[in-house]
Amino acid sequence: MTFSQHIARFRERRACAEPLPTEVAPYTSSTFFKAKQSGSKNKARRWDHRFSLESATHESSPLKSASRSKQTKLISLGTARPTPEYYPWMSMHMETLDTPLEGMASQSSLPLMSCTKGEDSYDFSVAMNYGYSAGSPQLLRFITEHVEMIHKPQYDDWESCLTCGTTSALEIAFRMFCNRGDVVLVEQFTYPGTLAAMRGQGLHALGIEMDSLGLVPSDLEQKLESWDCTAGPKPFVLYTIPTGQNPTGTTQSAARRRQIYDIAVKHNLYIIEDDPYYFLQMGNDGSGSKSRGLSELDEYMAQLPPSYLSLDVSGRVLRMDTASKILAPGLRCGWVTGSSQVVDKFIAYSEISVLSPSGPSQVMMYKLLDQSWGHDGFIRWLAALSQKYRQRRDTMLRALERFLPMDVCSWGWPDSGMFLWVVIDLAKHPQLHCAETASRPLKLCQDAEDRIYQKSMANGVLVSKGSWFSVGKPQDRHVSFRLTFAAAAKGELAHAIRTFAEAVKSEFSSN
Looking at domain 389-508, which CATH architecture does it have? Predict the structure, then answer.
């Protein structure tokens, strides 16, 4: 099905649908907005036996459950919500780019989006009140359609719900599935925020080897096959960043994802798919490629790798998406998708913690994505955003080739995401052959990494130490650094790489 056909199908479905509820914090669900199935798809398996001890006894707040009534026009004497009459704001007005990334547009040409009290499509007083933890029906409808269009889940009872960003979502997911002392499988280099969340819950990370395509299936298989149950329960949760991986920038191929999913089925793993960089597709060379006969949008869609959600036939994947890398991180809004049972449990946790994403953030996303851009405009934005980041990536790659010493430095060519991973071989380090340091190569690695980091920062360039991301045994006679081409001004990238390169070269000087 082409992208245009998807859009037409969603429009037909909306034309026949009931009006969205307009009351405060209405009960809503992805099931209201999904395509009606003929019963040809399987149901997800249940995970009661795999929920944590805490999660197994966790239930929704009775006050929140009472507010889920589908009956409208209720006079509420039971919910302690302040009356909108006393809110000090009457409306919110936003200006946005009409054409995605049309940065040269004049202020007068920017369309004005407004949300006001009493508005039919999204009443501002409703947005400013407490919200339902799954999200507003206005935004959840768009997200459900988006997930269905992009990932096409293969089982019947899947759902999405909104989150307050992936950091919060991960903390909830670990609480749902893990007990203190459990081991979680992760890539050997991974996001430090995830490791911190795990440590806070008494969980232990077990690093799986990586190569140029990310997590290595054979090492995952070996660690599971050889697991000694006397050392503790066999790991059940696999956490992975499959696209534009943070920090290495690697992207798992379609074949590799299928291998890893098959291992998950064999060993009954549950996969947490953290995929914030999925839509930042830059190609594996500077020229890109075109598929004959495809429209611009279909060409972009063809670049997207199959997600674990799209491969999942039994509900063993919880996929996490976020607005942070594709719209703005200050929105603190994202969404998770999984089986109805898992998403219901996730919502129950949200009800007693974050409650729901910010109402103004949901208004901003709804007005932009649904009312202004639509699904086609959103995909055009993502395609254009990918091209902008590709230009930045290529600028940084050219600078790396120009300034870094090629005899000791190596790096990959990321086709997704925001990161370059530079590995420095210390085999030629002048101190390696000194008697004092030869017996302590790990200390040499630690000291060399810190000196490069400190010198680069002293000269005005901040990089990230590879050791911050490392899980398990340190690299042997290598140090790594994560560089991002997303944050600095494009015109500053070459200068920044030159400064970093000078710090690297100074480490290998004999003085």
Answer: Alpha-Beta Complex (3.90)
